[in-house]
Structure formats: C-alpha cells, structure tokens
Design a protein that fits this description.
This protein has 201 residues and is an alpha+beta fold. It has a single domain, classed as START domain (Alpha-D-Glucose-1,6-Bisphosphate, Chain A, domain 4, 2-Layer Sandwich). Helices cover 29% and strands 32% of the residues. The chain has four helices and seven strands. The chain has a seven-stranded antiparallel β-sheet with strand order 1-7-6-5-4-3-2. β4 and β5 form a beta hairpin. The longest helix is centred in the C-terminal third of the chain and has 33 residues. It is globular, with a radius of gyration of 16 Å.
C-alpha cells in the first residue's frame, strides 16, 4: 500500500496526532490510501451526531455533496437514519469544490462522481462508521471508507477518516484521481471541523 502523506494534517496537527492512539481499525493492504485527521473543539456526542446527519452534508461538505440512505434495491428511503447493511448513494466532487459551500452551491459537473455503497459499520460505542463500494465486484474495486471519533485529551475531539483502495480499478483511480481524493478528504475534515464547532457555539 502506498501511503498518502498530508501536509495539511502534518503542519496543523502533527504534534497532537503523533501522541494520539488512532481509533481507526488497522488499515488493509491496497494500492493507495486517502486520509485526513483533525482536532475539533466540540463534544464528541455533537460531532458523532453531525457525522451521521447525512441530510446536512450539502450545507457544509465540499467533497461528499449528497449522501442518501437506500434499501437493498437502491431505492432512497424516507427514514435516512444510517444503519448497517443499508445502502448509500454518494454524489461526490473529485476534486472537491472550494469551500465554503452550502446547499445552493452548484456542482462542477465535470468532476461529479456517483457511487453506490453498503453501510458496513455504525457503532455508537466505538464512534466508528464505515461504508464499502459495491458498484463493482471486490476483485475489480475494493474500497471501504472508515471514519472515527475519539477524545485523546480534554482539549478536543479527534476526527479521523481513511479509505484504502485496492484491486484492479484502483490502479486507474490512483493514476487519475488520487490527488483529488486526498484533497477531498482534507477539505471535508476542515469543513466538518468548522461546521461542528459552529453547532457548539
């Protein structure tokens, strides 16, 4: 797996993150990784609620512009509560839009991507959530995104997110979209921090 370094994370949060134990599961092997971590000045309960409030993503998220919970047939549900083994339609911008964004920010149609995923983890005890790409068989595209929250000290809530891309299609994704994906993870982390801290005021 080729590691992805993030200057954004290293410069702003390197001293903190270097002393923190990650709440993400161990990474799997893959072609490349997109990831970001950031310290949020807000209670973990508030951050967890915001992380799973997919309906609010268009208000702040420059990367995942729409997250819709669906059933196994892909039909969007009235109940948008994320649950394990429900499906997820994600409309993403790769690379992300320039923040700040809101629900009225127009997409860049040239950089819009749609993926269909299975929600694999929603764990309010460990504060972990994950979803796996299922549009293609794993032998072609193996990609699962994890997000986690923890409280490494009394000063902040630590947000971490990581996606490891493996299998054949990931070679093409790596060549064509890896920098944009990494930028998306970093922009989402920064805007998630801004959004949650705004809710905490």
């Amino acid at each position: 797996m080729r590691p992805t370094s993030t200057l954004f994370t290293a410069l702003l949060f390197g001293p903190l993150l270097a002393t923190c134990q990650s709440n993400l599961p161990p990474p799997s092997a893959g072609i490349f990784t997109a990831q970001a971590s950031i310290c949020i000045q807000a209670p973990i309960e508030l951050a967890w609620t915001a992380l799973l409030d997919f309906a609010s993503y268009p208000k702040w998220n420059p990367f995942a512009r729409s997250m819709k919970v669906a059933n196994g047939l892909g039909v969007v549900l009235d109940d948008q509560t994320p649950q394990e083994n429900r499906r997820l339609w994600i409309q993403a911008q790769i690379p992300p839009l320039e923040p700040p964004v809101n629900e009225n920010t127009p997409p860049n149609v040239l950089h819009s991507q749609v993926s269909f995923e299975n929600i694999t983890t929603i764990d309010s005890t460990t504060r972990r959530a994950s979803w796996r790409a299922i549009m293609l068989p794993d032998i072609l595209l193996d990609a699962e995104r994890w997000s986690a929250l923890s409280v490494p000290n009394s000063s902040c809530t630590l947000y971490e997110s990581r996606e490891v891309f493996g299998s054949l299609v990931s070679l093409l994704v790596d060549l064509s979209m890896a920098p944009g994906l990494q930028k998306g993870f970093e922009y989402q982390a920064a805007e998630y921090k801004r959004y949650v801290e705004g809710l905490a005021i």
